[in-house]
Amino acid sequence: MTSQRPIHVLMASTSYPRDAADWRGIFIRHLAAALARADGIELRLWAPPGDLPAGVESVMLPAEAAWLARMMATGGISHMMRNWRLATLFAPLTLLRMLRAAYRREGAVDIYHINWLQCALPLPDNRIPVLISVLGNDLKLLRLPLMKSLLRRVMRHRSVAICPNAAWMQAPIEAAFGDLAQVIPVSFGIDPSWYTINRTPSWEKPIWLAVTRLTDAKLGPLFEWSQPLFRNCHRQLHLFGPMQEPTNLPNWIHYHGAATSEQLATEWFPRACGLITLSRHAEGRPQVMLEAMAAGLPIIASRMPAHAMTVVDGETGALCNSPQTYGDALSTLEDAATNQRFSTAARRWADKQIGTWDDCANRYIRIYRQLLGNEMHA
């Protein structure tokens, strides 16, 4: 392969937004668009149907697109398996069968870029290098019987890079696959529009935001810890996100359902004092936290690895492990001067450490070239 010929990338993802109003898999669309903009990359995408960025070619067959659209309508493959029913028993097998067929029929591929470990299971034995993007949920997959052995089998005899989107996942992934693959953390990017948001929070009636899928693990102790601090109080807590598990919402909370990025950027982030997440979920590096920091919102977060590697405690936000520390963080960040200092630091951190989606694409392209160089010299 010479430097003059473009790199032909086949990307696979089981999540993709249907349109501009769909929040699901939006980071895949941002990443695909950035890769397609980069010089020397030709990108084909196998993913649920949706509006494709310029320069991205879909390789979906109509039957595959229809099946994936139905899957997305039910919440996606992960949601289907969390809410197991007899009708969903064969969904993972159907998905793997379709992926295997796509990998086999797509010729002239220089490198596979696969999102989520399970999508690597049906890779053919063709020595084509693979980059696998990994999120926090992927670590749960490794607990399943035979999963590590099956994944190790497809990694043999090819160059492999496993790229978690947060560094805290590096150690467990290296323990499982470090003898077969490079493990290189790669942060996702942030759309430049978030960096341009001007904030004018209300200090007399502070507005706090929580943006999350509504599940028990994602919400964590949000309602319990917040009740004495928000109920019958001057401050407000506004909750955004799809209800993916039955959830009893307290009457003092302002629930808006799922929100688009445009709604958050234009209506809510400018008015908010900050973003709250008390998640106990196996997070990678939550994208909404990165976007909030780029917009200059301080973060109040539960003390867990994913949050501790994103929030600089006492500088860009606060990490909490009790109702007391949570209440103290709210009070501290409702001081206008303190909030502005944290806001400036949060935006500076996001710009320096994360950058844009074009920066993210360049991080991946460097790994593509490294993998292809390894393959040439194998």
How would you briefly describe this protein structure?
It contains 15 helices and 13 strands. The strands form two sheets. The protein has a seven-stranded parallel β-sheet with strand order 3-2-1-4-5-6-7, sandwiched between helices. It has two domains: about 5-190 and about 355-375, Rossmann fold (3-Layer(aba) Sandwich), CATH 3.40.50; about 190-355, Glycogen Phosphorylase B (Rossmann fold, 3-Layer(aba) Sandwich), CATH 3.40.50.2000.
Give your account of this protein's structure.
It is a single chain. By secondary structure, the protein is α/β, with parallel strands linked by helices. The protein folds into two domains: 7-189 and 356-376, Glycogen Phosphorylase B (Rossmann fold, 3-Layer(aba) Sandwich), CATH 3.40.50; 192-353, 3-Layer(aba) Sandwich (Rossmann fold). 39% of the residues lie in helices and 15% in strands. The protein has 15 helices and 13 strands. The strands form two sheets. A seven-stranded parallel β-sheet has the order 3-2-1-4-5-6-7, with helices on both faces. It has a six-stranded parallel β-sheet with strand order 10-9-8-11-12-13, sandwiched between helices. α7 links the parallel β6 and β7. α1 packs across α15. It is globular and about 60 Å long. The protein starts with 6 loop residues before the first strand and ends with a helix. The model is unreliable at 79-84 (pLDDT under 50).
